[in-house]
Amino acid sequence: MTRAAQAQINLHALRHNLQRVREAAPQCRIMAMVKANAYGHGMVRVARALAPGRMPQCGGRREERKRRVPQEPPGTSVDALGVSSIDEAMMLRDAGIAAAITLLEGFFEPAELMLIQQHNLDVVIHHPAQLAILEATPLATPITVWLKVDSGMHRLGFAADQVPQVWQRLTACHSVRPPVRLMTHLASADDLASPQTPQQLACFNAATAEINAERSIANSAAILGWPQTHDGWVRPGIMLYGASPFINGTAMAHDLKPVMTLTSQLIAINHYKKGDAIGYAASWVCPHDMPVGVVALGYGDGYPRHAVSGTPVLVNGKRVPLIGRVSMDMLSVDLSGQPHAHIGDAVTLWGEGLPVEEIARYASTIPYQLLCGVTPRVKFIEI
Ligand SMILES: *Cc1c(COP(=O)(O)O)cnc(C)c1O
Predict the structure, then answer these.
(1) Distance, CA 219 to ligand 1 centroid (Å)?
(2) Which residues contact 78 (CB under 8 A, 6 or more apart)?
(3) Domain span at 315
C-alpha cells in the first residue's frame, strides 16, 4: 500500500472563499496570491480554478498569448495572480495560464527583464536598484509596473518622500507601460486593535495624494477587517485558502471554508500500562492503562513537530489528543475516548472539521506556515 497521508484540496471551497472576497470588497479588482505553491495547495491547480482563461497553445506568439479563451462565465475569474519570483510565474505560463501575473518582488537582475517582457508579466518596483536597471534596459514592449510604497512596514518599498520623484521617473521610462500603479503592504492588519494600519493608510494616502493611479493596499485581514483600505485592487491570500488572517480568528466567523484537509490513517493500536512512556525522549507517560493509536503522518509530511501533547486530532470525526513527540513519519494519539477504533480508521490532522488555526496555536505558529509546509510526499487529491 502507498502511504495514507493525503491532502484533499476542495476547489469548491476555494471558489466559495473567492466569492467572500467579492462580497467583502465588491468595488475592487482582485489579485489572488498564489505564491509559495499557492500556500501549499498546488499553484497550477489553484490558478486554473481562480483564473480559468487559458492560452490557445503554449509557446505561441505573443499576440496569441494575450488572447484569452474564456471557459467559465465572467466573474469567476480573478484579475491577476501574485507570485514571488519569475520561476513561479514561468510555472504558470508553462501550464497555459493566460491571466495577468504580478511579480511581487519584481526582478532581481537585468536578464530577467527579457523573460518578463516575453511572457507578459507585471512587476513590482520597490528599490532604486530596480529602477536603475529598468531605465538602462530598453524593452521593445513596455511592461506594467506597480510602484511599491513603504508606508511603515519597513520591508520593501520606496520611502514616502521619494514616491513622487520615483513615480515621475517610472512614468518617463520607455520600458514602462503607463499608467504606473501604486501598492503598499500592511504590517499589522491582522490585529484590529493596532494603530499601525490607520497610520500606514494615512502615510500611503499622503505620499500618493498628487498621483492619479490604480492602487492596492489590502491583504486578507484588511479585506475582512479594514474597509477603508478597499481601494482599487485587493490582494487576498490566506482567506482564499479558508483560514482566518486574524490573531485568534476563526474561519467560521468570516464564512470561510477550509480548502485543504490533511488526512491519514491509524496504522497501529496498542494497549499500554500506567507508567509506560510513549515515543522519542519518553516525553509522555501513560497516566493509566490505555489504548494508543499510531497515525501514519509526521513532520516529514509537514505536520509541526512542535505541536504539543493535547493538540486535537480527529479519529473517525471525533477529537482525540496527540501524545508525545511527533516523529518524522508518525504521531501517537490517546484513544481512551475511542475504544472501538480500528487499524485503517480515518484520521484528520487539519481542515474540514478541525480548523488549521487551532492546530497552529498548539504549535506556536500561524496557519500560513502549516499550509505552506506540507511536503511533496503527501498525495494531493482534488475534490
Ligand atoms: C502574500 C501577500 C499578500 C497576501 O497576504 P494574506 O495575509 O495571505 O492575505 C498580499 N500582499 C502581498 C504583497 C503579499 O506578499
Answers:
(1) 5
(2) 18, 30, 31, 32, 50, 51, 99
(3) 260-382
Q: Tell me which of 197, 214, 245 is where a domain ends.
A: 245
Task: Give yes or no: residues 126 and 227 share one domain.
Answer: yes
Grid cell listed for 216: 492596492
CA 336 centroid distance within chain? 37
**Tell me: the pLDDT tens digits for 233-279?**
999 999 999 999 999 999 999 999 999 999 999 999 999 999 999 99
Q: At 161, is the secondary structure helix, strand, or coil?
A: helix
Ligand 1 nearest atom to the CA of residue 220, by list position: 9
Q: How many whole angstroms from its chain centre is CA 221?
A: 13
Active site residue 274: no
- Amino acid 60: pLDDT: 44
Q: Which atom of ligand 1 is nearest to the CA of 223?
A: 9
Name the residue at shortest CA distance from atom 4 of ligand 1.
Answer: 237
Ligand 1 probe mutation, 34, 104, 147, 235, most atoms within 8 A of CB: 235
Cell readout for 287 is 497516566
Based on the domain organization, do 110 and 210 belong to the same domain? yes
